[in-house]
Structures are given as C-alpha cells and as structure tokens.
Amino acid sequence: MTRPGRVREEPSGAGRLRDGPLGQEPDAAERRQIALIRRFGTVGVLLLAVGSLGAGASPVINPVLGIPVLNLLPRIPTVALACSFTGMGIVVLAWLGLGRFAHPGRAHPVPLAQLYRTMATWSLPLAVGPPLFSQDVYSYLAQCKVVALGLDPYRLGPALALGVGDPLVRSIPNIWRATPSPYGPLFLSVCRAVPGIVGDHVVVGVLLQRVLELAGIALILWALPKLARRFGAPPATALWLGGLNPLVLWHLVAGVHNDALMIGLMLAGLSIGVRRLPRVPPGGAVPPFRPAEAVDLALGAVVITLGALVKIAALPALGFLGVIVARRLGGRVRHLALAGAALAAVSGGVITAISLGSGLGFGWLHTLGVGSTVRSWQAPMTAIGALAAGLGNLLDLGNHTNTTITVARALGAVGSLLVGARILWASFRWRLRPMAGLGVFLAVVVLLGAAVQDWYYLWALIPLATERIGPRLRTAAVLASVVLALMAMPTGTTFNGRVFVLPNAYVAAALAVAAIVFAVRRPIPVLPFWLVRTPD
Length: 536
Hints:
Blueprint: H1 28-55, H2 72-75, H3 77-99, H4 112-127, H5 136-148, H6 158-162, H7 185-191, H8 193-198, H9 202-231, H10 235-242, H11 246-254, H12 259-274, H13 291-308, H14 316-329, H15 333-357, H16 380-394, H17 401-428, H18 434-447, H19 457-464, H20 471-487, H21 501-519
Helix pairs in contact: 1-3, 1-4, 3-21, 4-11, 5-9, 9-10, 9-12, 12-13, 12-14, 13-14, 13-15, 14-15, 14-17, 14-18, 16-17, 17-18, 18-19
C-alpha cells in the first residue's frame, strides 16, 4: 500500500490516452476498396506461396521433387524466384494501400475485424507452404531432437549429437551444424515434443513448429490493440504497422522464427501487467495500490520472463514495466528501486524454476552469443571492425580482422548498456514514453549487436507500433519495412551462387508488378499512404 500523494506533472498530452481516431466506420465505397485491396494482397501471397515450392528454403531432400507438375518449379529456379518476387511486390503494395485506411487521424478508420480477416487471409497460404527466407527451422527441429534424446543442446551441436547423416541435420546450413543452441530452455522444452510426434519427418515437423510460432503471432495480434489503447496509438494503426507488416508475414509466418513466440509473450506480459493500472492525470493524486494490480504485475512479469526464456531479447521489457510501476507508485527514485527489485525477484524465480525444472540447467546463459559466429554484413559494429582491419592491411600493419571485430563488438555491447540505461531513465522521467523507450532500446540493441538479421528489427518495430509516434518516425518505420521486405531472399541463401538467376528474376518480377499495377490503378490506388495528407 502506498500513501496518497502527488505525481510530477508530465508533458502536455502524456496523460491523454485515446482509443484512436473518432468517427464512423468506412462507408460502402471504402469497404469495397478495402475488400479489393485484401484480394489484391491475397493474389500476391498466393504467388509467393507457389514460388516457394521452387524458391523457398526447402530441405536438402525436397519432397516437392516427387510430386508431378509441382516438381517443375524446383527445376526452373528463375521462374520460381520471379514468381516469389512478384508476389512480394504485390503484398507490399497492398499493405501500403491498406495503410491509407489505418492512418492516424482518419475519420473512417478500417475496423479491427477487417484487419484480422486480412491477416488470416494473407497468412494461411504461407502457413501451409514450405519455409521461406530462412533455414533456421531445421536447426530448431534438430536441437529439439537433441533435447528429446536426453542430451545437452548447450554443449553439443546437432552434428555432434545426432551425426551428420541425420535427416534433420542434413538440412541445416553448414555453419550452424556444430554450434550449440542459443535458445532458452522454455523453447527447447516445448518443442522437444515435436520429434516425439513426427520422428524425422521434416515436412510435418516444420508444420508443427509453425503452429508454435502462430501461437506467438496470435498473442501479438491480441496484445497490439490493447497496448495501443493504453499508450495512445490508434488500434488500427498499431495492428496494421505491427501485425500486418510484410516482415511479420515473411519472417514470423513463412520463416517460422521463434521470435514470434518471444515477441508475443513479451507483448502479452506487458498488456497483462498494465491492464488494471489507473491512468493518473498529470498532477493528480496517486490512489492506493490495489492487490489486483499487484497480481497483474506479477503475472505480467512471469509472462515476459517466459518470452526471455525463448529468446533473451524480451528481457528489457521488464525494465520498462518497472518504469510504469514506479510512476504508478508516485514517480520517485525509491519507487523505481522498489519496482525493479520486485520484478527482478519474480523474474529470477521463473528463470530458476524453468531452467532447473526442464532439466537443461543454466547452460543457455553461456550460449547467448552463438549468433555472433556469423559475420553479418548488416551489423554496423562488425562492419566497423572489418573496415578497421582493412585499413590496417592497407597500412601494412598486418591482418588483425578477428581482433578488430571483437573489439568493435565489445564496444557495441558496452554502448548498448549505456544507451539502454539512458533510455530507461528518460522513460522514467517521461521524456520518452515507455513503449517508445522499449522500441528505441531494442533498436539500439539490434544496431549495436554482433549479428543482425532482418527479423530482429521486429523486436523494435512492434512495440513502437503501440505508441502514438510522430509522422516522421512512422514514415521511417514504413520505409524501413518496405526496403527490408523487398530485399529479403525467399531461399534464405544466395541461391547457390547461380548469379544469373537473380538479375533475371528481378527484371521479370519488376515488369510483372509494373503491368499488374497499371491494370489495377483505378480500382486499387497504390499511392503510398504517407503522401496522403491527413491530420495527426
């Protein structure tokens, strides 16, 4: 219980929370246009799904090769890849077109039911097709089999534990075959059931693994509107930007990344934790802390920690939940310390219980950096280290690539901690609101990290979607989503080094998309939504 008192006055507008733009639902003409956009996007998703049969991240033993007619696609990779690129372009354009109806301040925003229906329609073809954009799902299956056999996945890589001839190991990229698992004990404990159900059947195993990730996506779609209402963003905008985003379709639905489960648990925990906290107006009295609020906060901390036991990137959300609690208690430093200690105790208890209860122990804490094995060209700190090594070679100082990259990555890790602490403090002082702070913090973690993948940007983008961000930041988020979505490679590789395949496929897809856009320019305008002047 806390003594009633006064909270510090927050910046103008910080206490005004709204459900989104007020107004009626779209009229009949707008509803027809929304339906056309959904069908337009569905055509793109179907093209991508068909192309995935020949241009997807298929296993080494591709089952499509044994199916008449469909086995033509793997034999004509340029056509399959052009089909995939065409579908990707159409989906991105459809998403932009739909954004015109989810823009903040619009008098007639698209109903959430329409967005959920669109998400279901666009996800289904990708959910039943081959993996796309990444081969990580095969690593998941192999690591889960290692656990199912009673071996330690944090000491043994799949190749050493199962043998290089194992059907699951054969589909893992060579660089990951010998590495231990970087994933938390919750994820491996849940998915250890998959090999027990399907054995070494790769296709059914991928589908079951996808069910887990779809559960995470369902949590994201459930939590986004709730958090948006709480933190001031229009729910339709949040669901469109954070849920219907092409990167979500590409990497969480089609790519089967366990980031879906991690992000879903993180958002669900935040939503549960704040659902009954009162909204104290600026300068208003702090009401007594109720037991129901404490239960919600404890449950929210538990759920967020479960997300961190899938991938550790969910853990910073606990810090920002602590900021929200501290401001609820009165906004003093002692309140921040109290909230942090309480949430840390809950989280520590959950981590200990699951680590020991799963039988996997705390070995996962020693393998969190496995992803840095790959020198990702997208990681700025790795690029800086490589550039420094190149300059050293030019100056005849010797080849010190490993050293310079290690130093650059270490500086990035220290920088992430320092900047993260600064962002957390700014959120506590309400110079940066909590969900925006969480999004910016995770963006810093990604940019200064040792390894960067396209889907890592979703860690930051999805929380940011729940805040009422300005038009410039929203436009930057949309542009980044479009660029990353169009740059993604459906195979998850460089297409086996056949360099002639890519330019031919890109040219064919560009011509096809241009022809399709010209044909539908009147019924489905594809004017980017950020060029449409609407009040913010």
